[in-house]
Amino acid sequence: MHELPQQLANGLALGALYGLIAIGYTMVYGIVQLINFAHGEIFMIGGFGALTAYAILPTGTSLLIAIPVMIIGGAICSVAVACAAERFAYRPLRSAPRLAPLITAIGLSIALQQLVWQFYPDAKKAVSFPEFTGPAFKITENLAIQRADLFVLILAPLCMLALGVFVQKSRSGRAMQATAQDPDTAKLMGINTDRIIVMAFAIGAAFAAVAAVAYGVDKGQINFEMGFILGLKAFTAAVLGGIGNIYGAMVGGVVLGLAEALSIAYIEEIPGMQQLGGGAWSNVWAFVLLIVVLLVRPQGLLGQRVTDRA
Amino acid sequence: MRHRSLLILTTVITTGALTLTACGSRDGGSKDNSGGKKTVVVIGVDAPLTGSLSALGQGIKNSVDLAAKTANKNNEVPGIEFKVEALDDQAVPASGQANATKLVGNKDVLGVVGPLNSGVAQQMQGVFASAKLAQVSPANTNPALSQGDNWGKGEFKRGFDTYFRTAATDVVQGKFAAQYLFKDAGKKKVFIVDDKQTYGAGLAAIFADEFKKLGGEVVGTDHVTVKETDFSSTADKVKSSGADSVYFGGQYPEGGLLADQIKKTGANVPLMGGDGIQDPAFISASGEPNEGDLATSIGYPVEKLDTAKKFIEDYKAEGYKDPYAAYGGYSYDAGWAVIQAVKAVAAANNGKLPTDARAKVVEALGKVSFEGVTGKVAFDQYGDTTNKQLTVYKVEGGKWVDVKSDTFNQ
Question: Is the pTM of this model over 0.90?
Answer without folding.
Answer: no
